[in-house]
Write a structure and sequence with these properties.
By secondary structure, the chain is an all-beta fold. The protein has no helices and six strands.
């Protein structure tokens, strides 16, 4: 299983953005862009996290691709993965 993204944010217009807790194939993804690293304090650049672990990082806003770790096995959907509370 892999993850890929190609941000459509206009170059030079946004200094930061984040998508947090995005359910994706039994994982939770976080996608961050922070031009100088001062907004989210996770370093400068564009990065993706899977279940809280960095899976890919680029110093500039660009297309990213990374392999995902194996999904946890479960006999039924986990409510926390689907953001159901």
């Amino acid at each position: 299983m892999s993850y890929s993204s190609n941000p459509l944010v206009p170059s030079g217009k946004w200094e930061y953005f984040a998508l947090d807790g995005v359910p994706y194939h039994r994982h939770l993804l976080t996608i961050l862009y922070d031009r100088d690293g001062n907004r989210y304090h996770r370093g400068a650049g564009f990065q993706a996290f899977c279940d809280g672990v960095v899976i890919v990082h680029a110093p500039e806003r660009q297309a990213l691709r990374a392999s995902l770790p194996p999904a946890p096995n479960a006999s039924r959907p986990d409510a926390s993965v689907a953001n159901i509370h």
